[in-house]
């Protein structure tokens, strides 16, 4: 309950920031974008993981306000970086219940003079558990703006492959647990092969998350994955460090 009270004040006290994790092209390992990941610096608890406070923000409805801040902040960062750098952000299922979300996104894009394709929104399969018709409608309106929509943590949740047929997703992100398991499990490799072939038949890009070793990398690249994300190419880092990386400064 204390944490909930603190969470309510954290935005105005400017205790949040976004870190950015690099996303590289599998073919040449060039930097193509970043995923924004929220961080909460609590004055006494130190760093609180989003895995702990996002669920609380969802239960209390604070996610709406917090989610708007994430959109604003990610666009502000994207505006500083060159056009070939995309910025992905995570959306909670609850944010997709808001019919105003496409407006919020399109206003942020115009405020920062960003082309819509600079922005990618990541959702998980859980968006289809609740009001799936309403959420699908919001996703379609977002897609119509020209922003990318990625299906995150693919393969770990409730998967109804039927949703891939609705032409809203431009990307599948293979969950890191599969990627790391693929090194010692043939069945997992088979699952990844099917995901890649499924994605290609729908003309979707495939990203592998959680790539930690050079072996993980070559395995994913050779399986036909298009983009790579993981500690091998960089941990989530501050906006300043991400900007240095864009400019080739180590
Ligand atoms: O980066 P990290 O391991 O701490 O992220 C933990 C979880 O929190 C991940 O599932 C990630 O998708 C989620 N997350 C990180 N940032 C955000 C955000 O800005 N909004 C939402 N809804 N989830 C986020
Ligand atoms: O759920 P989502 O995919 O949005 O969140 C990604 C999460 O995975 C973040 O918490 C991020 O910090 C974490 N992550 C990113 N790269 C790696 C990696 O290479 N290994 C592991 N174990 N976690 C990673
Ligand atoms: Mn994500
Ligand atoms: Na993920």
UniProtKB/TrEMBL annotation:
Domain of life: Bacteria
Residue ranges of every copy of the EAL domain listed in the record: 1-250
Protein name from the UniProt record: GGDEF domain-containing protein
Organism the protein comes from: Allosphingosinicella deserti
Full protein segment contained here: 530 to 779 of 784
């Amino acid at each position: 309950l204390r944490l909930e009270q603190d969470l309510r004040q954290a935005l105005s006290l400017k205790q949040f920031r976004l870190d950015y994790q690099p996303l590289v092209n599998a073919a040449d390992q060039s930097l193509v974008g970043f995923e924004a990941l929220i961080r909460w610096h609590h004055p006494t608890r130190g760093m609180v993981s989003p895995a702990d406070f996002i669920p609380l923000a969802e239960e209390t409805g604070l996610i709406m306000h917090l989610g708007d801040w994430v959109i604003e902040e990610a666009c502000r960062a994207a505006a500083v970086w060159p056009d070939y750098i995309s910025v992905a952000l995570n959306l909670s299922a609850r944010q997709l219940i808001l019919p105003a979300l496409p407006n919020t996104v399109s206003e942020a894009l115009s405020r920062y003079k960003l082309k819509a394709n600079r922005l990618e929104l990541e959702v998980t399969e859980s968006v289809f558990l609740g009001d799936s018709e309403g959420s699908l409608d919001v996703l379609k309106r977002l897609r119509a703006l020209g922003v990318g929509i990625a299906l995150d943590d693919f393969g770990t949740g409730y998967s109804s492959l039927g949703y891939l047929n609705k032409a809203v997703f431009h990307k599948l992100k293979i969950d890191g647990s599969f990627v790391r398991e693929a090194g010692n499990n043939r069945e997992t490799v088979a699952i990844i092969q099917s995901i890649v072939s499924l994605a290609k038949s729908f003309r979707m890009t495939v990203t592998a998350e959680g790539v930690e070793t050079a072996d993980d990398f070559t395995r994913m690249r050779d399986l036909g994955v298009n983009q790579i994300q993981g500690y091998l190419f960089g941990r989530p880092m501050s906006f300043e460090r991400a900007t240095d990386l864009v400019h080739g400064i180590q």
